[in-house]
């Protein structure tokens, strides 16, 4: 039987006490990827709470659950050695995971890495690197990521007609990976 001492409109519009007691910390501790990401952002921010090791810890927990922004941020932290040892392989792996899920910033970053590789790497590997750069930069440009359209056009200038066609096929075939259900 409902509690008649509380007016019906208070019962209808009030949050249950259990939900009111929830905090980002408790949700993160229970495995909520978004809450874990938010804690990572909090610890990575400026001020008294800044702690890169804690930020990396929480980003990693969210990244392991396929949170693309956590994966992107963790990749940046590995590249810079913020809160974790500098590790280019880890950075590349997390950035690629975020790009594969459709994160435009990660796609731009992956595309630019392939573009640089096409300029600095072995000449026989350059065409493949340009095709990959073309693909990732175009995918980022399609989402309106700043600078990606210009970078994509610049890469296309150094490609053959066949390479551009192959890049177009790869763009058309791209399907973002799905995040795991929480």
Short note summarizing the structure:
The protein is mostly helical and 182 residues long. It is 68% helix and 0% strand. Helix 6 (68-80) packs antiparallel against helix 7 and helix 9 packs across helix 11.
Mind sketching the topology for me?
Elements: H1 8-13, H2 17-21, H3 24-29, H4 33-44, H5 52-63, H6 68-80, H7 88-100, H8 104-120, H9 126-142, H10 148-157, H11 161-173
Helix pairs in contact: 4-5, 5-6, 6-7, 7-8, 8-9, 8-10, 9-10, 9-11
Characterization of the model:
The protein is mostly helical. It is built from 11 helices and no strands. It has helices spanning 8-13, 17-21, 24-29, 33-44, 52-63, 68-80, 88-100, 104-120, 126-142, 148-157, 161-173. Helix 5 (52-63) crosses helix 6, helix 7 crosses helix 8 (104-120) and helix 8 runs parallel beside helix 10 (148-157). The protein is elongated and about 75 Å long. The two termini are 34 Å apart. Residues 17-21 have low confidence and may be disordered.
């Amino acid at each position: 039987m409902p509690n008649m001492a509380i007016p019906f409109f208070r019962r209808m519009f009030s949050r249950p006490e259990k939900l009111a007691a929830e905090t980002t910390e408790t949700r993160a501790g229970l495995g909520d990827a978004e809450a874990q990401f938010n804690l990572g952002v909090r610890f990575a921010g400026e001020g008294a709470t800044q702690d890169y090791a804690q930020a990396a810890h929480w980003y990693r927990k969210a990244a392991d659950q396929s949170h693309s922004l956590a994966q992107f941020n963790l990749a940046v932290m590995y590249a810079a050695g913020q809160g974790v040892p500098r590790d280019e392989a880890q950075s590349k792996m997390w950035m690629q995971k975020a790009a594969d899920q459709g994160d435009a910033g990660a796609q731009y970053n992956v595309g630019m890495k392939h573009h640089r590789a096409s300029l600095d790497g072995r000449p026989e590997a350059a065409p493949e690197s340009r095709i990959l750069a073309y693909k990732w930069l175009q995918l980022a440009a399609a989402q309106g990521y700043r600078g990606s359209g210009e970078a994509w056009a610049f890469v296309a200038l150094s490609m053959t007609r066949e390479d551009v066609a192959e890049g177009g096929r790869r763009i058309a075939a791209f399907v973002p990976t799905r995040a795991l259900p929480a």
